[in-house]
Each structure stands twice: as structure tokens, then as C-alpha cells.
Sequence to fold (339 residues):
Amino acid sequence: MIQQSNAQPKTVKAVGLISGGLDSILAAKIVQELGVKVQGVYFAMPWGCCDKTKALQASAQLGIDCIVLQLDERYLEIVKKPKHGYGSALNPCVDCRIHMFARAGQYMRSIGADFVFTGEILGQRPMSQMRHSLRMIERESQLEGCLLRPLCAQLLEPTIPEQEGLIDRQRLLNISGRTRKPQLELARRYQIKDFLPPAGGCLLTDKNFARRMKDTLDHGYRTFRETISLKWGRHFRYSKDFKLVLGRDEPENESLRSFAHSDDLIFEVENKKGPTLVLKGYDPGPEVLTIAAGLVQRFSSFKDSPEIEVEYWLVKDRTNIRKVRAKKLSDEEIERMKV
Fold:
């Protein structure tokens, strides 16, 4: 609280990005200790590095409300063509932060909060947390002067809430670099024990996953949900019009079935004695159908059997089950189709 000239107390409010990781928890704790009312925001990215359950649990332990904002098709447009380029694979780290912080800023203004804060640390990540990147992200997310980084604030220019006395700059920290020792010491002091380990980056930093995402963006997708299923199964590209995704175990089979588009075809051995395959594309001809069935046989216990029949049906018409005889596929054919 601070006293205004009319002696009426003003409640300082802030929007904090909560990931469930230690840095974001510590940042929220520090801001709370300054007497600020915190509203948490978690950005749900299905192939991201953070965990929604952990983020919500952390918020509950801190005693703050937390809303979930979903990254959607707007974010995929950023992945397609990031203004500030990619990191190690298909990860648009700088553009990603600009997008999230801009949305957090919109939410800040909608609830009448005074600033946004994050758990970022100067120099911790080479692409998005160097001094020039921090300034650029703040500017392009339209949060100039209103984006506080409590863990390293004393190493940065004072923000507007610091300048106006809404928060005490002397109680902010000066952590920098990649060491975790200061954060772990703070965790012990605050008795914080349940937090996510340091994130290794979102799946877009993984070259195999990035290849799948690029293939999807190049050939098109119908809904955002289809990009969620990129994290499951083995992926094969028959042609520009047809893609095949094969589950590796029953949890993946179930996930692929759940996230299949209504116009996809599902392939399974009778009584589910093998993997589930999802065929994406419209009106496949006989050759595509036999290859889809062949992949099911190749990765089932019937691998060495004579050609088998595989059931298939349209997701939106489960009652119309048909059968197709599998084509025995060579390792070379399979390798050629792999994404």
C-alpha cells in the first residue's frame, strides 16, 4: 500500500507470468513482499517447456489467482515467420516473449494493474535475456517502463513503478548469469520446495520436433489442435496431400484418437492388437490406404506375418468400418517417408 495525497490508500496491482519454475515463483514472492496484489497469468503452449498443473499449484501456494491464456493460431503465425529469427531449431524465443508479454500487457490494462513482472534474469538465456533483447522485448510488447524483472531489476534501468515509489527498488535483486545458486538460496530462505527444474526449452528447440512442425506449417493444417498431436507418435509424409501418424504405445494411441480431425481416417488391427494410425488428408486412393495399413502391420506384432487386413474408418463416422489389405513395406520405403 502507498498513501495518496487524499490519504486514501492505493492498492498496487501487478500481473505476473507464472510458469511453475523457481524463477517465476521467486519473482512473485518478492513482489508480494512489497505489498503488491499479484494476479498470475499462465500461457498454455501444448509443446512448451512449462507445466500448467505446476503453475496453478505454485499460484495456489503463493495465495494468488492465476488465469490461463492459450497460445493459438496467432502464435503459429509467429513460428512460421518470426521477425527476430529462430534459436537453435524452430524456436522464435524473442518473438515468443514479445507475443506473451503484449498479451499480458493487455490483461494488465483491462484489470487496472500497474505493471507486469516476470522471473527473467539478465544473461541467463543467450537469445532472449541479454540486455539489448530485454529492452527490445519491453519496447515491442508496448510495456516500456511497465515490465519489471524483480530478480535482476537493480542491474536494469528503473521502471515507472520504481520511479513513482509504488515499489521499493532497494528491495529488488541483482542476480545475473546462468548460476542457480542465488535462486536456490532464496528458495531455502522462503522454504519453497516444490517447483519445476530449470526448463530445457520448449519442444521447438528439439530438432526432431521442429522438423515435424515445419512439415506441418509447410503443408498446412486445419486446426490448432492438429499441431498439439505433433508431440506424439511416429510421423510419415506420403505426399504433400497425405500425412500418417502412428502411435508408439497405448497412451499415444489414445491421444492421437482424441486429437484427430473429424475428416481423418483411423487405422487399427482388429481388437486393437497393434498401433493406431491417423491418416490426414482427403479422399486417399487405394495405394495410400494400403501403405497406411502396411505401417500399422510393420509396427505391430504381425510384422513378420503375411499381409493382414486392417480396419479403418472416418473419425466422424465410426459406424462405417472398412478393411484394407496391408502392403508389406521395406525399411527403405519407411525411411523415405519419415518426417
Remarks:
- The chain has two domains: 2-190, 232-337.
